[in-house]
Specification:
The structure is a homotetramer.
Chain A: H1 9-16, H2 20-25, E1 28-33, E2 38-43, H3 60-79, E3 85-92, E4 101-110, E5 114-122, E6 128-137
Antiparallel strand pairs in A: 1-2, 2-4, 3-6, 4-5, 5-6
């Protein structure tokens, strides 16, 4: 069965459940805007993601994992299938404390062999906490 | 109480337990070699880290998180305290399937304000699966 | 003599002339918009920057150098002094052929010790050719 | 005419001359060691590459360009043809002053669609000045 493209928020939410790790991240699709190649997801702070015990601060590791995943799904929305990550970079700008994370991914290039996606991570007040840039194999 | 530097494998293993996220990664210090600024850790595959259900394949997210963490501890070994990550890059080279990960981190520069660390991720047979490069604030 | 901040386009154009390499790039300040932390510069194609002889195509090397430099000057505009680059990443999206380059740099974070800047490289028709992300030491 | 692989130092030196930009860098092949996927080149400091006038210090831009180029030729040595850069990262570790640069590039992965290369930049005394990591399209 071929997918109807671009994928809807509902269809993407379904696909997320196929991966135990993504399910563990508890990502929720907030909105899709394929006309500007953008997808927004939300991730709650789990106790397992804390940096220091009782700090309420996200460890950078799950933030990186969210960037990799949400970046991928910006391309999944357009192409209908998950794509292997070639590489990515994350820059940490401010500590993420006592907040869910809002991840906004936007495709900068959807090329024949490589797709490049920018991902901004903000807290619930809209303050930018981290930024990611990822390359995926689209061939 | 000031730490005796460089830190021993036992002391580092203790420190890892202070972070719920690192505890969740179940990282085990395999060896420290401060004279060549190198630390080796091992991480088992947890069910929560699987990419596709039943695939036995690591999702890239936890691999990135392991790179960030083990890279940090190469500097912790020398400096005695955790350091905030400025940014890092991960390149995925081969799928990681049905294997624990062996992470070897080596400090390339321990500067006054910035430390740079390379992290190689191999499977239990020594095949290289992913490589990371990370910058930490040492000031 | 202390600088009046943010720096004007004229003042930045003057400062660019102090560096033989930047002078060689022939960068021209097109506009400054400190209120949105953005600076735009233009670089013409020199014969020395060609990838293949007679191809009219920019080699990636000078594009990377332009990203590093224009990114730095987005922070110079705000802080009044050049800052050492910690590291940067460049992604090449499309070949740059028979065109001057328009570089738009925007500060994503102007922190106490680290500044992070995004740089978009477009051709004269506004098509995105490459993107850069750079960290500078602001301490 | 098909190339005999791996390419010799002489053949690579010839190929470098086809690009006006690479010719401008005055790169000289010092050695090739295809059995460990390594190539070494040397680049002299040109007046046009100075950061501040009369400083004798390399601007970071040409260092980045050298990383991109020498990294590419580590794969050219194995594959016989230039490959487009997907992206690369450079970390600056120490200022490069009054010295030629010695660039050592080693292939970390020569995959079907992506090649990954590490490049170390040292001064003539062997002190590490900058490190690069680059991805190239090999398909």
């Amino acid at each position: 069965m071929s997918e109807r493209l671009p994928l809807s928020a509902e269809r993407i939410q379904q696909m997320l459940a196929h991966s135990p790790f993504i399910e563990f991240l508890k990502l929720e699709v907030v909105s899709v805007a394929p006309e500007r190649t953008e997808i927004v997801m939300r991730a709650p702070l789990r106790p397992e993601f804390e940096r220091g015990r009782g700090s309420g601060q996200w460890h950078g590791g799950p933030i990186a994992a969210i960037i990799d995943t949400v970046g991928d799904y910006a391309l999944v929305m357009l192409l209908g299938r998950p794509l292997p990550t070639i590489n990515f970079r994350v820059d940490y700008l401010r500590p993420a404390i006592n907040t869910a994370l809002i991840a906004t991914a936007r495709v900068r290039r959807n090329g024949r062999s490589v797709g490049v996606v920018d991902v901004d991570i903000a807290n619930e007040a809209g303050i930018l906490l981290a930024i990611g840039r990822a390359s995926y194999a689209t061939a």
